[in-house]
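Quick look at the format.
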Amino acid sequence: MDGPACLSEIDKERFGIRVARANRTSVGEFRELLNFCESNKVDLLIARCDTNELRLAQKMESEGFFLTDTLIYYKFELGKKEIPEDSGVAILRPVRRGEDEPEVRKIAEGSFKGYFGHYHADARLDRKKCDEAYVSWATRSCTMRDVADAVIVAEHNGRMAGFATLRLNSKEEGEGVLFGVAPEAQGLGIYRSFMIHGMRWCQEQSARQMVVSTQITNLAVQKVWCRVGFEPNQSLYTFHKWFGSEGE
């Protein structure tokens, strides 16, 4: 991303408005960020900043930004810790691109139903389109290499029961990006298996660490992360700001 932000074509396509994203806002580039939105006629800005940047967070609130979620990141130092053994509750395999997308979509629809992310926290955004954001993310991961470097699916009792998307952020860091387990298969340990497989995948890519993130209120997955050896690393606020007539 060049500059303080970038325009989001996928959000524009989904919501029918001009959306910009700033993944790591700083105090020094805050005014430049607003100028970027003005010059590009942005309707909605989605901006994140470190939670320890309280002065910046307060400045954003004074300028009409409002908090939509808090992300917490965990990391696992590969090579410094032993990767736990998998329970083998499910068969894990690479996604079959061009074949498995309908099942991945179905699982995403079930597993993310009622999920409350930063889109849902914004009352101006259509609820159905907010739900579709995560489903679209999952299916695009199966078809677009720039969305995910690897997609793993789980089979349990002869049926697809979940998916996990992985990517390399750099030569040293891999990330578990998006996970979904079918409602009827939750509680069996499939998510734990995805985490262990993700660590092994990152290790195979010669990454030094694996990171994952979620809303700070999502305690269930954080408990799994702690049990397999992940530790809290950092946290980010997500803010939304509307401009022009869209924000009135």
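Next, a different chain entirely:
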Amino acid sequence: MTRAQLGLGLIGIGRPWPVADRAVPPPDQVRDLLRYAVASGIRFFDTAPAYGMSEKRLGSFLHTLPAEARELLVIATKCGEIWTPEHGSVIDHSPEALTRSVARSVDLLGRLDLLQLHQASSEVIGEPLVIDTLRQLRESYGIPYLGASVKTVEACDAALTTGVFTHLQMPVNDTRPDLVAWARSHHQAITIIGNRPFASGQAADRPGERLAYTAGAVGPGIVLTGTTDQTHLAETLTEWRQRWRPVRGAADKAG
């Protein structure tokens, strides 16, 4: 049976998260974290323009990797929301904003493996112009996979109905039993990326059990852990490997 793989969510390397006064790590800590993650077998990295400096920092690291090492990685980003310290989050799903966002992401990150629609409500997913723009961007930049980052069951259903998306990212933890149930019912039809397994730090006890809970819901999908600390990542990897065999190799790219 194909099991879930562990990926790394990178909001914390680019902006204060999950609380406003959380310090963003310095460049050397970010570099060491990413280097350790790759060396430890993590192959899926999730970023976004809404994550502040995250895309820029990840891109700088990727440019230091040999081509064969980069080829093994799955780099997922998003479009539809941006964040700056001055203005906070700005959501814009217009074709012009989506196009600008993806052009910037490609410039920072190079090749994109998965493009996700950020803040994807059922209403946004139901807009034909949004879906057409994503299709055009996929074609223009040779992006293998399209996904949506969702927060409701209604958005999950809408995304699946389009037939456009190969991946759905959503919170999968015991504070969202509705999304857990949806993921369990649909993980054979679409790749589920389960984020916030520890509910953004609210459920940090029993980490192994919580990782296993999320992994069980996403099936052959991806469990995203978010951290800025190499020691914390090492502890998470230890808990993970005690329960699931690691997924390795290019054959497992993008879930």
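The chain has ten helices and ten strands.

See the schema section for token definitions.
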